[in-house]
Amino acid sequence: MKLVSAIIKPFKLDDVREAIAGMGIEGMTVTEVKGFGRQKGHTELYRGAEYQVDFLPKVKLEIATKEENLDMLIEAITSAAHTGKIGDGKIFVTALEQAIRIRTGEVDNEAL
To answer: Which residues carry this modification: O-UMP-tyrosine (predicted)?
Structure first.
């Protein structure tokens, strides 16, 4: 099992959700986060004053998946979240040692 964490632009969330739902993946966790990378924030004008916005709003997705679905999941997220502009985001994949469905007690792949 793998845990896929993706940081994407907020307006791409629905596109990504539809793409992974089409794969048959049934669940994900979504968190609103702020951060910066190469994009390094931007300046905004508010009531005539210019100020620097260092942390940009992003969305973090966490999806547990079976190993055999990993490549398709990464491709679905990448194609749905891609705009071609700086700040599209990143995908991180980590090993998931164990998963347990609390309601039924199912473990590992059955719990996904």
So the answer is: 51
Q: Output the six-digit token pair for 51.
A: 């100020």
In three-state secondary structure terms, 30 is: strand
Q: How far apart are CA 112 and CA 103, in angstroms?
A: 12
Rounded-to-integer distance, Cα 38 and Cα 105, Å? 43
Domain positions in the chain are 2-111
Model pTM score: 0.84
- The three state secondary structure string of 40-59 is CCEEEEECCEEEEECCEEEE
C-alpha count within 13 angstroms, C-beta hemisphere, residue 103: 3
| CB neighbour class for 41 (10 Å; exposed up to 12, middle 13-18, buried from 19) | middle
- What is the architecture of the domain spanning 2-111? 2-Layer Sandwich (3.30)
The pLDDT tens digits of the residues spanning 46-105 come to 667 766 667 788 999 999 999 999 999 999 999 999 999 888 999 999 999 999 999 999
